Structures are given as structure tokens and as C-alpha cells.
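INFO batch 0412 | record 1 of 1 | parsing
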Amino acid sequence: MHTLLIPFPDLNPVAFELGPLSVKWYGLAYLAGLLLGWLYIKRLLQQDHLWPNGKAPFALAKADDLLLYMTVGVLLGGRLGYVLFYEPAYFIRHPADVIAVWQGGMAFHGALLGSILAIVLFSRQQGVNPWSVLDLCATATPMGLFFGRLANFINGELWGRPTDVAWAMIFPNPLSGGVPRHPSQLYEATLEGLVLFLFIRYLTHTKLALRNPGLVGGVFVAGYGLARSTCEFFREPDPGHWLTIGPFTAGIFYSLPMIVAGAWAIVMALRKAQRAPAHAGE
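INFO prediction complete | emitting C-alpha cells
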């Protein structure tokens, strides 16, 4: 059996300590994703040529409000998604643990739903096109996904399925069984984070896709669903989950609606773009 010659790195999940307070890499990953995404969004808002009619959807100063909305949406949605989608039986027995986010437990699909609600509320409050706000957030979200998956790797959690590939790793957690496994966290960081960000960046700056509201958001939603579903075939399924069926996992089943919804948004955005010249001439 071929295994990685370099063992799993001796990485401390705690980045640093301030007295009794321990700051973990996982929390820093969320912070980095939100702050870098906020800075990137502000940069895009300053590039009017990227947007419909040569004007950004809202003023630069409102990006601070959007950051607040998205932070609440991601944290509440991510936690409630984990509670409802992955461990409902446990939290029914231990309801007080629902707020114990320091113990870990966030779900991207829940964070996505929370973010969409935050986008709708922000858009109504600001009187702007929610599709353009969705597009804007979609450009930055892969950053958070990238850092989040790296934090999963540092924590030695969410490991992959047993394998004999040359780059397999033995994760230190005893629950991993002490067998070589796919470093699936790195696969997800690459596909869901880096590749998706670069592809969306190509669409926004080369194809000027932000001029078609809903297109970039649809590409992100469908693209994430495809990337996550692909990586799930290398990731160890959640033990005992009712949606673990053969090689298929809960993550795949939760991602399938994303692929459909994203494809629908892409089609609608392109159809609207095709109709726009005819309307402009009337």
C-alpha cells in the first residue's frame, strides 16, 4: 500500500491563546473569509464597467451593512443547518448544545440558506436588485470555502475514504481508524474554493457576467453543488446518516437541489439578456 512519505502535519487546531481565551484556526477561517470577501466586494463595487448600465448596484458605503447581514446569515444558517441536517437526534436530546458553536458543527448548505435570506432582507432594505447582490456575494464566497476547508484539514476532521493512492494520509484522530485516507479537505479547498473562485473571476472580468443579474450567482450555486458532489465520493460519509446510501452521501443529496436551482438561474439570466436588446429598441 502506497502512503504519503510525509506524515500528517503536527498542526495545532488552536492558532494562539490570549489568557484563558483560545483562538482556533476554524474561527479565523470564518473571519478571514468574511473580511477578505468584504474587501473584494468593495473592490468590485468600484468597477462600474462590470455592472449593468455602467453602475454598481449600490453605494460603496453600503458594503459595511452587507457584511453585517452576511455574517449573521452565515453563522445562524450554518449552525442551524448542522443541527437540522446532520445531528437532529442529538440536539433534541441536548438542546442546550445548539448554541455551543465553540464545540464545532457548521453546515455549508445551512449557511447558504441563511445567506440567501440575508441577501433578500438587505436588498429590500436598500431597494436594490437581489440578483445583483447574490452575484456580488457569489464572487467572494469561494474565499471563505477555501479557508474553511484548510481549517478542516488543520483540525484533522472530515477526512476522506480509505485509499492506497500515493498521497494518502493517516489522520491522528482515533476515529479515523489509523488507515491511509484521502485528504479530501484539500480536494474541497481546491475545487470549491480556488477553482470556483478563478472560474467566477474569469466570468466577471473577461465575460462581464455581472451585467446579467443572476448569472454569476447561478454559476456559483451550480458550481458548488457539482464540486461538493464530486468531492463527496472521496470523503468519508457521515456515519449513520439516513441519506448515506452506498457511495452516495448526505452532502450529495443536499447539493443536487443546488445544481438544479443554479442551472435554472443561469438559464433565466441568459434568457433575460437575450430579450434586453429587443426591449431597448421599443
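INFO post-check: The chain has one domain: 21-274.
INFO record closed
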